[in-house]
Amino acid sequence: MTFCQAEPQASFDHQPPNATPPEPDIFAAPTPDPIRIYVACLAAYNNGHLHGRWIEVTDEAAIWQAVQDMLAASPIEEDAEEWAIHDYEGFAGAEVGEYFSFENVVELADYIRERGELGAQVLNYYGGNIEDAKARFDEYAGEYDSLADYAKELTEQSGETIPERLAPYIDYKAMAHDYEQSGDFLTFEVSGSVHIFWAH
């Protein structure tokens, strides 16, 4: 759909705020702010009005009802049937498309509530494919200060006996570099911690 470039009038309904809320930064922690979308009436938009509503993402039926109520209050009553998502908050960096279905929005919101910013990074790595992102969490190895720390843990769990006098000379950073080059692991940094996934 092509949008009209008409100059908006001075008085706006429910205009989305400019401020962006803080993003969640802990895997599996609840998001600190509501996950919500701003749904706009396209008939109003194309006629120079900004009319829409912020809607908290709970379930699909509730979103549909809120959108119908928003359209019913449109200043362009006779043509207020079409809508688009013009803004969103609380998705931790995951992207919401302008014409995402509300089913997709709810699925994405549930995923972000469960996995936070880490989930958003994994989702973006897979180009927004939520099924691939969910499947990657089956290969989650854990959270570490660095990949070198994980290399050390793997070495200690290998069962090999390392003489105490030689232990200080093991270069775990070099091992971590080899891990990165091998493609056997995926890493994502969140708030200074490294989250590691096996890349089988």
What does this structure look like?
- With 200 residues, the protein is an alpha+beta fold.
- It has 2 domains: 36-128, no CATH class; 139-198, Arc Repressor Mutant, subunit A (Orthogonal Bundle).
- 36% of the residues lie in helices and 18% in strands.
- It has 6 helices and 6 strands.
- It has helices at 42-46, 60-72, 102-125, 130-136, 147-157, 172-182; strands spanning 36-41, 52-56, 83-89, 140-144, 185-190, 193-198.
- The model is unreliable at 1-31 (pLDDT under 50).
Helices, strands, pairings?
Elements: E1 36-41, H1 42-46, E2 52-56, H2 60-72, E3 83-89, H3 102-125, H4 130-136, E4 140-144, H5 147-157, H6 172-182, E5 185-190, E6 193-198
Antiparallel strand pairs: 1-2, 1-3, 4-6, 5-6
Helix pairs in contact: 3-4, 5-6
